[in-house]
Amino acid sequence: xxxxxxxxxxxxxxxxxxxxxxxxxxxxxxxxxxxxxxxxxxxxxxxxxxxxxxxxxxxxxxxxxxxxxxxxxxxxxxxxxxxxxxxxxxxxxxxxxxxxxxxxxxxxxxxxxxxxxxxxxxxxxxxxxxxxxxxxxxxxxxxxxxxxxxxxxxxxxxxxxxxxxxxxxxxxxxxxxxxxxxxxxxxxxxxxxxxxxxxxxxxxxxxxxxxxxxxxxxxxxxxxxxxxxxxxxxxxxxxxxxxxxxxxxxxxxxxxxxxxxxxxxxxxxxxxxxxxxxxxxxxxx
Length: 285
What we know:
alpha+beta; 15 strands; 8-stranded mixed sheet; Fructose-1,6-Bisphosphatase, Chain A, domain 1; about 280 residues; D-Maltodextrin-Binding Protein, domain 2
């Protein structure tokens, strides 16, 4: 049985409404926790090591988002960074309650909430929300908006020498070898500037709305990129995703976990002539 289009449209609108409500709720928890920082809200635990932490506020923000989803759409399955998989249903949610936890814990006001929603494997909406600047980037129904206004990103420049690149590489927790350092030197030597802001989701959002031409990442999880990729698609941007073997793949919901290297760029950016094309081929950084 095929669900007719009006029913699907109504369902997608409901999912989008819930996603926005859940994002704002998580953002409110994160903002309050940052402004009213205390030993309780900043209580941290190590995950992979000293370079990979979770705070009490991360967990509280994720709970706030999940509570809203469960109350409005109980037939949902949720992948949260702090809680793993929960629930069952055709609607899937991928949540990073605070992307940029190290910034958050250190007192740097650069972090965000990232929530992506899918139904029956199809993307419905992606939201990246910066609660400190109150900037809500959203993709749904083929549209890209910032705080509700349609965004039509324009190309500021198309080549490495004339743009900034955003990248968190090389990453904490592993001393970069000589090949990685040489690859990073290529970035520094090729781009007008290299910026390492500490939030993969915001990197993708900034590319989507045209504030930056290109971003590169090679260490992330599905919750870091799920919403941001939907933003880039809505902006008609470029997505070059590779698996662990260096093969190019389509970063659909089912394949997000297989993506190991990623470039996102404005539609008019000359990727083939960029040093990033070589970097992706070599896989050194």
